[in-house]
């Protein structure tokens, strides 16, 4: 990173040099060992260098603008054949205990302190020397920087993708005589295959990930990163585009939690925060590094492996007592959204099949049944997109499964199972096409620190949601389902803009839940008014009691705050907030001053006014980002941040205000258009508000003079 980080601060560093090179695909191959509480294996990263990424991004934008009226046909993902598992030497203990590793990778020859002392056994996480050579090599070599912590890196090597049979079809220039250039050309062609060749692409990714190595690479580790280089590779274009990293996790690693479920059986799952997945595998954490992935995970046969993946994986028995699970994702997303859970889960099924369940089955379909007609044109990078599928557009209820410890079977059958199809159908009625083809729901162990967490194709729910009546379970389920659209299919380009995920999910949970309950309009309004009052009191408490700098939605551009219909904009690094009670008034007064030092004042029947001052936002530079692409997440490591709701609530009140101001029909019609325009992409606050004002020009003219260019 270009500036020295103070380890005593609570900012989370994003070290990856994403401005130079981007990971386009991850191929994980891991063994889960419950006895030692580690995951061990390898990950192969397939790269695309900066120049080519920019060219493709520019081409995508031009195509989106010039071909918006043209039809395209894109095939939908279907269950992919599980690639052959690489040959391994299995532990002699396998088959007799649920808590042993099924396959071993590199032999551990580390000392008692966990650090390695020669070039074959890489340095521990605290090492400060390059393996293979500790001399001074000058500054001419390109260095790949990955986000990484709490991992023991064993070996880093270039992958000989040219050795894969049949791979020569990806060689455009057969006259290339430099083997390293040939390998990089193969990877460049592979990562840019069109969406209708997604199955072939996954197959070759799997084959390449099992190809032999062709030379070890120099690497170094520090607290937050893994740095890799190759002698003589002076640019990102010259750097190997397929790299294998052999590593093991740490039992105390902060990305995963080793614990026991409610039945006392061991399990492990990813937390997703505060450091995301960098203690699960070396990766590029910044949201801009959107990638696909596939993963093969081996565990004792008594365990179930759940993961972010587009198909409902079934185990493949490798030998007695050991099974392998394979998942894949073809929609590019940030590495932070990858999720895995391994435990003695039981799939929960309803005791009886009701007429509603039968209707849901008739409405659902498998990808192989899809009608591949085109529905509009998408503006994201090319991938097999459900929004371009006519049948997916009318699929109210996607295939889903519920997993939990067997001791919670009764609670799941009574509370959760009946709600899933209702909430999925309600979400579809509001936003349209489900972004993901299927859904797993897991009741996680009691130490899970939140009510829920959404990831691609999988939702974690706390056991607390099963207690009492269905209201808590229903609202939380609706909240996590809403993240499929806001937070996953549409992500924030800047992680300090949490409101783009949590604000939308909080507002939509009320809308989805009212529809799932089939409430009359007046009943829905009463329920939502009550929840708004409770949320407003929570927001007041947080504003008064929490540090001012942690209330900021985004540094340099603090996008929005609306409280029960009172809106304000603060475009400023430091939030200046003034609370003043106001008597009820009729209508809405709004005044906007100059674009520099904007002041927006809103007077509304809700007895509150918020006034802020700010500066004109810079859309491209949001917070500190170095030339290499490294940055920081403000207060990302602050333990208080986990419990704060301010980002949820500020965003919620803005959206509530807009829905009431515009009317539900106009607002949700716009929201569906917004989803169709921006799914598969990263956005900033300006993208949402700019599109809102462009699509509702009458509001721009006399109500929302907000300066957001």
Structure notes:
The chain is an alpha+beta fold. Helix content is 26%, strand content 24%. It has an eight-stranded mixed β-sheet with strand order 6-5-9-3-2-12-15-14. Strands 17-18-19-21-20 form a five-stranded mixed β-sheet, covered by helices on one side. A four-stranded antiparallel β-sheet has the order 10-11-16-13, with no helix packed on it. Helix 7 packs across helix 8 and helix 10 packs antiparallel against helix 11. The two termini are 29 Å apart. The N terminus and C terminus are likely disordered.
- Report how far apart the termini are: 29 Å
Unreliable spans are 1-5, 66-138, 358-374, 555-623, 702-709
Structural class: alpha+beta
Strand content: 15-25%
Shape: globular
Question: What is the count of β-strands?
Answer: 30
Number of helices: 14
Query: How would a textbook summarize the main sheet?
Result: 8 strands, mixed
Layout of strands and helices, then pairs:
Blueprint: E1 12-14, E2 21-33, E3 38-49, H1 50-66, E4 143-147, E5 151-159, H2 179-191, H3 198-209, E6 213-216, E7 218-221, E8 225-229, E9 242-249, E10 256-260, E11 266-270, E12 290-300, E13 304-307, E14 316-319, E15 322-334, E16 340-343, E17 346-348, H4 355-363, H5 390-393, E18 400-404, H6 409-416, H7 419-431, E19 439-443, E20 452-455, E21 458-461, H8 470-482, E22 490-492, H9 499-516, H10 521-545, E23 558-563, E24 566-570, E25 578-580, E26 589-592, E27 599-603, E28 609-613, E29 631-633, H11 646-662, H12 664-678, E30 681-683, H13 685-695, H14 697-702
Parallel strand pairs: 2-12, 18-19, 19-21, 22-30
Antiparallel strand pairs: 1-29, 2-3, 3-9, 4-8, 5-6, 5-9, 7-8, 10-11, 11-16, 12-15, 13-16, 14-15, 17-18, 20-21, 23-24, 25-28, 26-27, 27-28
Helix pairs in contact: 7-8, 7-9, 8-9, 9-10, 9-11, 10-11, 11-12
